[in-house]
Amino acid sequence: MNKMQSSLNVASEESDEKRWSAGVGSSKLLDANDTSILSFETKHGSNVHCLQYDFYGKRLATSSSDRRIRIWDSIKGEGQSWKLASELPRVHTSSIVKVIWGSVDFGSVLASASRDGSVCIYEECSAIGTGRKFWRQRHKIIDAGSKGCVLDISFGPARSGELRLAICTRGSNAVRIYKASNITQWSLNGKYVFDGTDTCSSVSWCPSVFDPPMMMVAAAGGMVHICREISSREEVLWEKVCELPLQAQKTVLSVAWAPNPGVHTHRCATACSDHKIRIYGLKTSSSWTLNGKDLKKGPASWSEAAEVRLEGELTSHGAPVWSVSWDTTGTNLASMDEKGKICLWSLDTSKDKISWKLLEAHQEKQRKNQSANANL
After folding, report:
1. Distance between CA atoms of 374 and 256, rounded to whole angstroms?
2. How many helices (H) and strands (E) does the chain have?
């Protein structure tokens, strides 16, 4: 087994505020303030497909083809290091392609997506008497549209005491949304049907709780839709608000909706097989308020609901870009391509118009049999 398959390369950290992960398929985590690279053994028995920081940046979750999920705690001393804190129950029957943290409003919650077509929900618990922490599987979702592989999952922001999870599966043109008021009981809450395609490949929730629930959904042929929830007493419906310009008929491998603290506009990023990252600005209509009547009524047509503009095309990658991920400010972006190159981008505030600058680029040396899976 080659070294790339069993180790994570991690940037040392001095700040918890500007931190991001390069996402699925990446074996690197980078910090905005200190981009020196560290490495530690994960002891996974095969490819590490995904790693995710928790909300506070103090813990890491890793998933692998060995069907294991491991939780790591950060140790600070002369140099940052990581120690294995726990290993989750081994419940999947195939590779775990993604693992994500739920909102901290619900405690320590994880979801995992696997090639076996299932999504598992876990919760960290405390043993009675000793207080020892351990992880327990709370639920297993077998998506109705699954044909053997879950491609992507995304937790929605905390609203009204309910957890919500969006699921993309191979062979389905619908993103299905599941909800749980109790972490052990999940039910189908709605779905967004993406007309004109046979598979939705990637999904990302709008993290803002001051806007109606929204998602961006990518599908084959370079299509990306922005959709929003329309609720009624009878059912929960999702409708298309707008669609982003076609990504040059290339496959969109990853999408990411940026946090927008303190601003009224939104920003979205797409990673594509044509080696480019595209960043879009999204301005929602003034009719999108937190007024219940407006939320139910909605705009007369999607063209009146939002204004989309291309803010930039980032072109430093020389291979298909597998994943993109924003930091907590929504002004810094990390990207990774299939050759192991990671780029860090930042909004350039020194210019009058919106532009993006490359902060850092790291190229992993290619090794024999090197592999990582971003979208299985």
Report:
1. 14
2. 1, 28
Tell me how far CA of residue 80 lies from CA of 31, 34, 39, 77, 190, in angstroms: 12, 11, 10, 6, 43
Of 24, 23, 22, 29, whose CA–CA distance to 8 is shortest?
A: 29
Query: What is the full DSSP assignment across 138-187?
Result: EEEEE-TT-SS-EEEEEEPPPBTTBEEEEEEETT-SEEEEEEEEETTEEE
Question: What tens-digit pLDDT sequence spans the chain (376 residues)?
Answer: 333 334 444 443 333 333 344 443 334 555 555 555 667 788 888 888 888 888 888 899 999 999 999 999 988 765 667 889 999 989 999 999 999 999 888 889 999 999 999 999 999 998 888 888 999 999 999 876 566 789 999 999 988 788 999 999 988 889 999 999 889 999 999 999 988 777 888 999 999 888 889 999 998 778 899 999 987 666 788 989 888 887 665 789 999 999 988 777 899 999 999 999 999 998 876 444 434 444 444 444 444 557 888 989 999 999 999 999 998 889 999 998 988 888 999 998 877 788 899 988 887 665 444 444 333 3
